[in-house]
C-alpha cells in the first residue's frame, strides 16, 4: 500500500513560488544596497582625492611667492577650530576612557603640528619688521603624507570599528581633535618663532641707538 506523500495544491504551489520570489527579491535588494553603498564610498574617495590633488597643486604653484605673516591674526583659525570642537563635544559628550583616547590623539596631533610648523620658514625685514613666510616643499609633502595616513587610518578604523569596539562618535571626535592639535599647534609654533624674531630684530635695531 503506497503512502500518501505531500501534495502541492495550486494555491500551495503558487504560495511557494511567491515566498521564494520574495526571498530572492530581498536578497537581490540587499545585494544592490551593498553595491550602491560601495559605489558611493568609491565616489566619495574619488572626489576627496581630486580635491586634495587640486589643493596641493595650487600650493606647489605658490611656493615661490612670499606671503605676509600677520601675527595679530594667527589666533583666529585655532580659536574657531577649538570653538567648533567644544561645540561638537558638548553635543556628543565623551565618557570614561574616551577622554583619555582624545587626550592622546590631541598629543599626537600637537606633536605632528609642531614639526610641521618648524618646516615652514619665516623671514623678517630688519628695517620694517615685516614678517614673511614662504611655503616649503618639505612642509607641503609632510602635510600630504599626513592627509594620506589620516585617510588610510579612517578607512581601517571604519572597517574594523565594530570588531575593535570603537564607536562612530569617538572616531569622529578623534579625527576632529587630531586636526585641532595639528593645525592649532602648528600655528602656535610659528607664532612663538615669529615673536622671537621680532624681539631679536628690535633689540638689534635699538643697540646702535643706545651706543
UniProtKB/TrEMBL annotation:
Protein name: DUF1453 domain-containing protein
Protein's UniProt keywords contain Isomerase: no
Keywords linked to the UniProt accession: Membrane, Transmembrane, Transmembrane helix
InterPro entries reported in the protein's UniProt record: DUF1453
Transmembrane segments: 42-61, 73-93, 99-117, 138-157, 163-185
Amino acid at each position: 500500500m503506497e503512502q500518501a506523500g505531500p501534495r502541492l495544491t495550486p494555491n500551495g504551489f503558487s504560495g511557494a513560488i511567491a515566498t521564494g520570489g520574495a526571498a530572492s527579491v530581498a536578497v537581490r535588494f540587499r545585494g544592490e544596497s551593498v553595491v550602491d553603498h560601495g559605489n558611493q564610498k568609491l565616489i566619495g574617495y574619488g572626489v576627496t582625492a581630486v580635491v586634495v590633488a587640486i589643493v596641493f597643486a595650487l600650493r606647489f604653484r605658490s611656493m615661490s611667492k612670499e606671503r605676509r605673516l600677520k601675527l595679530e591674526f594667527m589666533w583666529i583659525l585655532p580659536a574657531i577650530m577649538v570653538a567648533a570642537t567644544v561645540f561638537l563635544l558638548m553635543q556628543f559628550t565623551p565618557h570614561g576612557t574616551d577622554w583619555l583616547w582624545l587626550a592622546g590623539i590631541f598629543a599626537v596631533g600637537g606633536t605632528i603640528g609642531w614639526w610641521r610648523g618648524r618646516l615652514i620658514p619665516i623671514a623678517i625685514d630688519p628695517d620694517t619688521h615685516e614678517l614673511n613666510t614662504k611655503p616649503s616643499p618639505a612642509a607641503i609633502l609632510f602635510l600630504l603624507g599626513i592627509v594620506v595616513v589620516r585617510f588610510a587610518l579612517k578607512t581601517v578604523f571604519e572597517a574594523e570599528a565594530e570588531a575593535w569596539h570603537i564607536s562612530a562618535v569617538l572616531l569622529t571626535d578623534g579625527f576632529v581633535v587630531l586636526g585641532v592639535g595639528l593645525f592649532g599647534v602648528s600655528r602656535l609654533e610659528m607664532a612663538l618663532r615669529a615673536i622671537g624674531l621680532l624681539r631679536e630684530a628690535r633689540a638689534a635695531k635699538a643697540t646702535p641707538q643706545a651706543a
